[in-house]
Amino acid sequence: MKSSLRLVFSFSIMFFIVLVSVYLFLHSSFFKVDKIYVSGDETVPPEEVISLSSLEKGINIFRVNKELTSRSVEIHPMIKKANINRRIPRSIEIDIHERKVWAVVPANGNLLFIDNEGVLLDRASSAKINNYLIITMDKVPERITLGQVVNKDVVRMISPLIEQLSSDEKRHISQFHYHNKEDSLTIFTLNGTEIRFGDKERFEEKVKFFNNILLFEQQLNEEGRDVLKYVDLRFKGQPIVSTLLGSSTSTTQMPEVNIYE
Length: 261
What we know:
It comes from Candidatus Syntrophocurvum alkaliphilum. InterPro entries: Cell_div_FtsQ/DivIB_C, FtsQ_DivIB, POTRA, POTRA_FtsQ_type. This is Cell division protein FtsQ. Keywords: Cell cycle, Cell division, Cell membrane, Membrane, Transmembrane, Transmembrane helix. Pfam families: FtsQ_DivIB_C, POTRA_1. With 261 residues, the protein is an alpha/beta fold. It folds into 3 domains: 1-26; 32-98, membrane protein fhac (Ubiquitin-like (UB roll), Roll); 103-243, Rossmann fold (3-Layer(aba) Sandwich). It is built from 6 helices and 12 strands. The chain has helices spanning 2-26, 46-53, 66-73, 152-164, 167-171, 203-223, and strands at 35-39, 79-87, 91-98, 103-107, 110-114, 120-124, 133-137, 173-179, 184-189, 194-198, 228-232, 240-243. The strands form 2 sheets. The protein has a 9-stranded mixed beta sheet. Strands 1-3-2 form a 3-stranded mixed beta sheet, covered by helices on one side.
């Protein structure tokens, strides 16, 4: 009995010594951070990222609060996600995923550059807009700061449409106009045709018409007999088509699309 107690006591002492040793080792200078570096950076200077993280050399690597540090870095308007990785024994990696400019919104004499979540990344009085989408709206917030969302609804409306269009179809679009009150969309082609897309109802059906509209527009232009004015997709069935030479109430029949395929 006594021998068993001595064995348990000895084991407990040894276990305690091991725990203390491990604790002291983990909190020793061996694990003091001597390198902090950033990965995934393209436009955001790594110095800014490290400054936002508030990490400093000399801190114990296991005392770094990964979640809190990630949130601190994600304050930057250009950073969508930040992951903090411990690189044992003495390095910390800050892996960031930057936001990308997805569209340009002209507003109040400025150009607002937003990502695919509607977050404002930058603004300028003039700039090269390259191949970015151009989105206009009936109403844009008068005051908005970097990192804030300009308009979530317009992104939810346009993003799934863009994903289903081919590269060639996208190239024919000059502008998207969002009607805030109606939560609807009007699309303008490079040739000036107005496509009244409407709201999200019958979304897939409307997308199927898109390529035919562009082909019909091209056909009329090549033949030189008329110019496509607008195509209205807001109602069920075949779209209402109006040409420039027709009266304001007349319509032209566009080649039909099988919307039930």
